[in-house]
Amino acid sequence: MTRYRDLHAASLEDREAFWLDAARAVDWFEPPTRAFDPEQGAYGRWFPDGVVNACHNALDRHVAAGLGDRTALIYDSPVTGSKRSYSYAALRDEVSAFAAVLQDFGVAKGDRVVIYMPMIPEAVVGMYACARLGAIHSVVFGGFAANELAKRIDDARPKVVLAASCGVEPSRKVAYKPLLDQAIDSSSHKPEAVILLQRPELAAEMTPGRDHDWAALRAAADGRTTDCAPVAATDPLYILYTSGTTGTPKGVVRDTGGYLTALAWSMTAVYGVKPGEAFFCASDIGWVVGHSYIVYAPLLIGATTVLYEGKPVGTPDAGAFWRVIADYGVVTLFTAPTALRAIRKEDPEGREAANYDLSSLRALFLAGERADPPSIEWAAKLLGVPVIDNCWQTETGWPIVANPIGIERLPVKLGSPTVPMPGYDVRVLSDEGHEAGPGELGNIVIRLPLPPGCLPTLWNADERFRESYLSGFPGYYQTSDAGYMDEDGYVFFMARTDDIINVAGHRLSTGGMEEVIASHPDVAECAVVGVADKLKGQSPTGFVVLKSGVERPTAEIEREIVQLVRDRIGPVAAFKLALTVKRLPKTRSGKILRGTIQKIADGESWTMPATIEDPAALDEIGEAIAARR
Ligand code: COA
Ligand code: AMP
């Protein structure tokens, strides 16, 4: 462990030297003379005098270096039956021309552009076109409902929205345009224009005066070029909204120079990928994993990224990922444990893998939720490569804890994503702020400053940033994860300490769902908990108390509540079960005992809380669950 330990210690002891050295992987317009300025921002800012451009680093610099013919992006879409690949030069030209289109709409440095698009190359072109101009993109995941999109439009206040007419799910086509129209109708901020990509699978009607046809604009811009705008390293590259503890999402701000530095470092040191190799990150561009390791990091180092529009199973079968690996000589696959569980459920013996040549694969990385040891062991046996857990958050942008195989492959301890990455001074603190000993459970925190790449603040919400992350333990960033560190410094993430749950690798707020359910006219109060689910990790379940005097059949109301969550938050919430109870178990001070409800729902052993107001309420929860099993 010496190489890792030395490196980690160096990153904390001499952060200037460590990160200025790492920053040499980035092509700066003006190289930074200092790594960190502790006086700026909430906890300091990285590369305060560096000037840079993300698109230049991902595309133009490689073309200028004579690598224009190398494959940058492979689009593979089993749901539409299409495949397409772009060389670095071709992608640069696409982005450069589309940036000219954006310029025609007045998009300039600092303007926001919301992107509501599925996993198609045009979405990546849109993101890079923004980066090229110094505009700030904000991608919204397609599985969210209009109401969630509206919240993001109101917060980001985009000049332009880029959208596609539809997404394609295995079971249905998702018409994006009606959702977008509904969102813009209900938002107070109105974007000046929508640039709409008509997909052949489901075209949409254009709204005259507001909507513009992507293909026509792009065709008219053929041959036009734009320059990469120099931006300050501290300027935002994007805003990515993530679940907070209320229905109002948090706009995580990502700066430019620190992010590029951290991504370039991690691509080789953590993921062990070299220029020219193919990297397959099976996430979605609507999530942070997709931003970092589908869109930006592979291209920063001159590797090839695979943009896969499909699922791990059912498109068409459980061999889909193995087919992609074989077709493109993928060296590293990065996915969520839930995807492995889905594959294993369909193909427990792993027979599909035998149909493909997987000899190119060197490692499988897992993130997004706790990697369950049975899935790790199953995949390691099947694929014969190291299966490596890594843990991070939308807020951090790259792994907090990982196994840096590009530096030194450390022994795996099942249940732990291994050790803190450079710049992350991870500690475990008791609720009172005392440092926990090895093996002692506590709050996982990061001693400030956070390393480059992590959020400097929340969009237009500096105070919320301080309150949410910095105020709980002064001098530390609070991850809101509970866990422990062992005597070798391995970190174990056990559970969230807030109301966030993880459903199929998707981060959701139970508080947000409760807000929606409470808006149903028949509901007096409710509690949503994440119940253990074999496939998705957790699955949200709502317990509902109806207003007195409501006489309608409870089954009907429960169906309406399920539909309400789907309509207001989106299908991605996967909220399928609402159960009516007479009362919710509470403490004498009125706090709903969500932790105990969850234990009962999970069938775990639980003890009667000493402060409970009415013990019979807990029996009722058990009965409601038993009645549905
Ligand atoms: N646009 C529109 N709808 C979407 C969507 C998108 N981009 N993604 C998911 N949905 C819908 C699904 O169609 C489904 O709708 P339904 O209720 O009508 O069936 C619903 O949202 C729930 O989707 P999901 O939770 O993904 O469940 P699933 O049963 O469709 O698939 C898995 C299960 C495990 C195969 C899938 O969740 C998966 O691949 N997960 C990996 C997630 C991941 O990579 N996360 C990133 C972290 S690294
Ligand atoms: P997100 O912001 O969607 O990436 O979700 C971040 C949260 O997901 C973390 O705070 C953890 O609770 C959880 N998480 C992500 N990766 C892991 C992992 N490898 N092990 C355990 N929990 C994880």
UniProtKB/TrEMBL annotation:
UniProt domain AMP-dependent synthetase/ligase: residue ranges: 62-448
Gene: acs
Family of the protein in this entry: Belongs to the ATP-dependent AMP-binding enzyme family.
Superkingdom of source: Bacteria
Protein name: Propionyl-CoA synthetase
Residues covered by the Acetyl-coenzyme A synthetase N-terminal domain: 4-58
Domain (AMP-binding enzyme C-terminal): residue spans on this chain: 513-591
Pfam name, any one: AMP-binding_C
Gene Ontology MF, one: propionate-CoA ligase activity
Any one GO cellular component localisation term in the record: intracellular organelle lumen
